Structures are given as structure tokens and as C-alpha cells.
Amino acid sequence: MTISIGIFMFDKVEVLDFAGPFEVFTTAARVAKASQGENTRVFEVFTISRDGKPVTARGGLVVQPAYSFANQPLVDVLLIPGGVVSAELARPEVIQWIQRTNNGTQLTASVCTGAMLLGKAGLLDRLSATTHWEDTAELQSLFTKVKVVSGVRWVDQDAIVTSAGISAGIDMSLHLVERLVSRELAELTARQMEFDWTENR
User: Is the CB of residue 31 less than 8 Å from the CB of residue 192?
Assistant: First the structure.
């Protein structure tokens, strides 16, 4: 079975927040194909923006998303990266899309301040969650039903997984490869990426 990974894209998204997980899941797919045969397809990874138009990430990188809200495929794992999320928090159509898409996913995950969007969508209520260390206080003050955890790379609450800032999204994504497929594939992927993957801490 192929697991579809949909990554939300928006203006002022943090580059490594989406590119790190994208690289983990596409590398895992490549490693699995090399070790298990050409017909092996463990992950299909694609990007989605509100309208399908190019987005300008932080630092000025322009990225063309593969899909819009209107024509996206089914999403098994929804990943919400961080960055400057204030404009997205103010868009009802974005929050409603997150809620609607989450209803059909195996799990929904966030990197860094992407947790703010999950909080706005009500997906973190009565759960533990984390975000970038500079934003934990704001996350707690905005979403009082959330138990905000500091000093960890990610927090796994089964259907919702949140990670701390930027590079922690790579750690979380390797954790998700282990969860969704196997520890062996996660270890092979980390080795292929020349990344010293460690346990959550």
C-alpha cells in the first residue's frame, strides 16, 4: 500500500520545514524501491497550496505546489510546516481545509509554528504538543486546552504528531517512517541522508 504525504505550502513558509520532511519521505521511497524492487511504492509525496499558485518561502525561494485545495489527491498523512503563519491563521478557508483534510488522514503532523495552525483548527485540544522553543509560550497562551511540552524534538499523540523547530521536522519525519513502515527503513533512510538519527529527547 502506498501512503500519500500531502505537505501544505504557503507564503513565508520556512524552507527546511517543508523541504526536510519532503526529502525524508522521498528518500525513504527511493531506498525502499532499491532494496525491495522497482514496483515498491511506500510513499507518494506532494505539495498543496490554497490556490495552486507559486508560493514565496522565507528567504525568497519561489516554489510551485503540485496541487490546490480544489484538485488535491487523497491525503493519508497531512504535514503542516511552519514559518510566518499569521496570514494563514486569519484565513478561514485554510483552517477549514485543515479540519476537513484531517478527517480523512491516518495522521496529521506539524513542524515548528505549523502547530499554531493545528491549534487554530482545534486539533490539539486536550493533547500534548510542541513547537519551536521561541513559540511555546505563544502556543500555550493562544490555545489554553493544549498541554505544551518544551525540550523535546517531537510529541507523538497517535493521530497528531508535532515537532519543534526546523531540523526537528527531519527527526519527526524519520520517526514517522518507522511508525508507518519500519524501523529498518527509517535507519536506511537516515544513513542514505547521512543523518545521525537519534531517539526523541
Answer: yes
Question: Could you give the CA distance from residue 154 to residue 169 in angstroms, rounded to a whole number?
Answer: 8
**Per-residue confidence in pLDDT tens, the chain, 201 aa:** 899 999 999 999 999 999 999 999 999 999 998 877 777 789 999 999 999 999 999 999 999 999 999 999 999 999 999 999 999 999 999 999 999 999 999 999 999 999 999 999 999 999 999 999 999 999 999 999 999 999 999 999 999 999 999 899 999 999 999 999 999 999 999 999 987 666 554
* Contact of 30 with 185, CB cutoff 8 Å: no
Phi, psi of 164 (to 5 degrees): -75, -160
| The three grid cell numbers given for residue 12, joined into one nine-digit string | 513565508
Amino acid at 131: T
Q: pTM of the entire structure?
A: 0.94
Q: Which 3 state secondary structure label does DSSP give 137?
A: helix
Contact 111, 166 (CB under 8 A): yes
- Of 195, 178, 172, which Cα lies nearest the Cα of 32? 178
**Distance between CA atoms of residues 120 and 139, nearest Å:** 10
